Amino acid sequence: MESLLDGFISPWESEPTNYIRNVDEYHMGSDLGRMDDLGNLLLNLSPPSTMLTERSPNASQPSAAQLITPPDEEPGSTRPEVVSISSSFFPGSHNAVSDIILRSSDTVLFYVNANAILRTSKNVFEKFLGFSLDDKRFQDTIIDIPESAVVLNIIVHTLYGLSCAKHNPPFEDLETAINRMPAYGLIPKVYIVPSSPLFDLLLSHAPIYPMQIYTLAGHFGIHDLAVKCSSHLLSYNLADLTDDMCKRMGPTYLKRLMCLHLNILDALKSIILQPPYPHPANRNCDHNEQKKLGRAWALAASYLAWDSRPDLSMHKVQSTFEALGDHLTCDECKAVLHSRIKEVIVKWVKVKGSFLGTR
Which residues of 129-160 are buried (b: 16+ CB within 10 A; e: fewer)? Predict the structure, then answer.
C-alpha cells in the first residue's frame, strides 16, 4: 500500500496532505483485516466533485445532438475530397502501370494503360482529343470524357477485350456506349463479333429487346448480330415499325426483316396444304372414304394458314392436325395421318432454321 500511495498529491493541493499520513498510520495499525475501513479511507482521498453519486430521477439528460455533434471545425479547415475510382480500372490494375486517367462526367476515375489500349485501336480517342493517346501531354493527367461512368466502363472494357457482364449494365447504357464509340474512333462492328464479350452480352438482352438490337445491328452493319437476334423477331408485328426505326436500320436490313416474315409464311403454307398420302384401298376403307381425311386436312390447313404467324409453334400445328384422328375409324388412315404430321413438323423446323441462318 505504501508503494501505491507513496508520493500521491491531491489534484487540488500542491503539497502532500494528512491523507497520506493517515494511510501510513492505518498501515502501522494492528487491525489489518478491516479492509472496509481502508476502502472508506481511500474514498475520502477523492475530491467531492469527483465522487460517484446516484443520479436523481429529475436530473436533466443530455440531448442526442449534444452527444453526437462533433466539435466545430477551425476556420479555414477543409474536408478531404471524396474520389470515386473504378472497381475494375484502379491504379496498377491488369498488371500494368496506369499512365492515363479517364474521368467520367459523374467524376469516376478510370486508371488505364495507354499501350494496352492502343494495341486494340491505334486511333482510339484521337478524334476526340486531337492528338494520339501516347502523346506525352496526356501522361499522368486526367482526361475528361463526357460519358457516364456506366457508359465509359463499357467502352473501356471493350478496349481491354474484357466482359463487363459482372456489372450488369442496363441495355440502354449498352446501346448508348455503342452509339458513342465512333466519336472516340471505334468502329462497333470490329468489336461486336461472334464470341466477343460485347456480342454475347447483347445477345443476352435479345429476348427482351429484339427489335432494338436488330436496329442497332442494321445501323452499324453487324450482320452476325442481326441474324442471331432475328429468331426473336418472328413474333414481332411489322405494323409496329416506326419511320425512325426504319431509317435507323436502313433499307437493307428492313428488306431482310420483311422478307424473313413473308418467306416463312409462304413456306408454311406450302408445307401444311399438302394432305396425307392415301393408303391402298381395303375392304373397310376405299378411296372415297379416304377423301374425308383429305377434306378435313385441307380445312385445318386453311385455318392455320389464315391466322398464321412466322412464330407459329410446333405444338399448335401438331395439336390442330392430331384432332382429325379423333373422327377416324380406319387404323391405316390414322397411321398415314400421324406420319404426315411428323413430316410437317420436321419441315417447319428446318424452314425456320434455314431462313434465320442465311439472311
Answer: beeebeeeebeeeeeebebbbbbbbbbbbbbb
Could you give the C-alpha distances from 164 to 87, 215, 279, 331, in angstroms and in order?
11, 22, 61, 60
Q: What are the beta bridge partners of residue 332?
A: none
- Could you confirm whether domain 84-205 is CATH 3.40.1350? no
At residue 344, what is the residue type? V
Read off the C-alpha cell for 267. Answer: 413456306
**pLDDT tens across the length of the chain (359 residues):** 444 444 444 444 444 444 333 434 434 444 444 444 444 444 444 444 433 334 444 444 444 443 344 445 555 556 667 789 999 999 988 888 888 999 999 999 999 999 999 998 888 999 899 898 888 888 888 999 999 999 999 999 999 999 999 999 999 999 999 999 999 999 999 999 998 999 999 999 999 999 999 999 999 999 999 999 998 999 899 999 999 999 999 999 999 999 999 999 999 999 999 999 888 888 888 888 888 889 999 999 999 988 788 888 889 999 999 999 888 888 888 899 999 999 999 998 888 777 655 55
- Burial class from Cβ neighbours inside 10 Å (0-12, 13-18, 19+) for residue 42 reads middle
CA–CA gap between residue 37 and residue 328 (Å, rounded): 115
Rounded to the nearest 10 degrees, the angle between the axes of helix 243-272 and helix 287-306 is: 170
Asked if residue 236 lies in contact with residue 327, where contact means CB atoms within 8 angstroms, the answer is: no
Across-strand partners of 143? 102
- For 40, other C-beta atoms within 10 Å of its C-beta total 10
Residue extents of the structural domains in the chain:
2-48, 84-205, 258-357
Q: Rounded to two decimals, what is the model's pTM?
A: 0.70
Cα–Cα distance for residue pair 254/246, rounded to 1 Å: 6
> CA distances (Å), 103 to each of 6, 82, 89, 95, 218, in order?
66, 14, 11, 21, 31
Q: Which amino acid is residue 187, in one-letter code? A: I
Name the nearest CA neighbour of 352 among 181, 235, 238, 241. Answer: 235
